[in-house]
Give the backbone structure.
Amino acid sequence: MEQVKLSLKRVTHYYEAVDGSRLQALDQVDLNIKNGEFVAIVGASGCGKTTMLNIMSGILKPSEGEVLLDGHPITQGKHRIGYISQTETLLPWRKVIDNIVLGPELDGVPKKERYDKARQLIESGGLAGFENKYPFELSGGMRKRAIILRALAHDPEIMFMDEPFGPLDVFTREALQQEILRIWSQKNLTIVYISHDIAEAISLADRIVVMSRRPSSVQQEIAVQLPRPRNVVEIRYDQEFTRLERKIGAMIRGTNLEVR
Amino acid sequence: MTRRQEKWVRRIGPFVVLFIFLALWQYLAVAERINTFFFSSPVDVFLDFIDLFVSGRIWLHLGITLIESLAGLLIGLSLGVAAAFLFGNFKILNLLFDPIFVAVYGLPKLALGPLFVIWFGLGLKSKIIMSTLLVFFLVFFNAYAGFQDVNVELVNTLKLMGASRIQIVIKVTLPSCVPWIIASLRSGIGASVGGAIMGEYLGTNKGLGFLVQTAGANYDITRVMSVILVMCIMMLILDNIGKLIEKLVLKWRPPVD
């Protein structure tokens, strides 16, 4: 548990604007994420959360600094990374089960083995009976489940989630949050979860990283000492939850240019 | 109009219009208001149409035209997709060939006919090449648009899963072009038959185009029309096969009402 899984060392990033000027998104971000930890990253809109996630997952190379996964610099294509964004990323021409086997398929796992595994995941992941449907035949919530199962089928070393349930309705969102907690504790996953919803971050995470405004760095790290297993709905009535929500809310409002 | 009425009009209406047209034509022919030497009559055309099949004379010509068209379609389709893929991946090809392609695309292909006859003879080859040429450009521009339209999110998803470049091409780029290729398949069927018949007009002794050509030269208007009727029915069947392929291949897409 105490072993460091992912570490950001003085990560700085600039964007080149259209007019040629440089825009600094991240300023010397230092962050360590432990093996098996559930870390949420929150911050005012436009503070570079998604930039940070793209750098952590190796999609984007930082201008300065480095990212280490299990002590090795992260390079795109070298790791099994679970990435769940708010967009639809199932391959529309593949049935649900054919989408879920994708990761092992890329790794060259034998057909029978990968389909057996996918069937097990579908059974436990609430998609039984839908394995032979095309994505367009599923509801938004079910497509999200399929995306999560696809990530799991690949045995991810680490999971990154970028406001994954943003576009869903509140009840579907609660159900999926609960599902993520179940999967996380069962599989001992390491999850980095970006959210603009403070309540969501508190109910899921072990630790919340609050980002400062741009050029952003880690403003504060707050441990969430709420008991587990958690019920994402019930936990909101806990006193500690309310205290944290107020505290983090005040912190972000203090940095948010748009409300000042 | 209610939905129900619309459905019936859609189903029966075209036949009623066609029937009225044919009845009028037949009346004018029988009443000698039009010269049947130039305009024939529906009954004559129909009887000649039946005779073409009963006597078995049509099969050789129909078969030849179908073979030329099918060969043109398959070769044009494969080359079109391959070229679009290369253009999409190697910018240099695009820079070198794009203006040339646009120029050749705009050219009426019939103008190239005499060259094809001299280079490839009066046999099947010149017809297949004409047909291939027509299909090629149609498919190329469609498939190229498809390659430009690949969803970047899907590509990134696979990259994060550790996919190699070639895996991304096979599992994302090519499948996402399929709707574009299929869209060009249906118009490609028309183009391939058009190309084959165009090729036959340039000179041959087999094929539907040859039949029309010789009948026209002999002022046999009835025969010209009955062979055109054969072509119409052939196109109708081929287009429906295309539709069926489209439905089977694209069943992963939400139906558009």
Summary: Chain B touches chain A through 21 residues (CB under 8 Å).
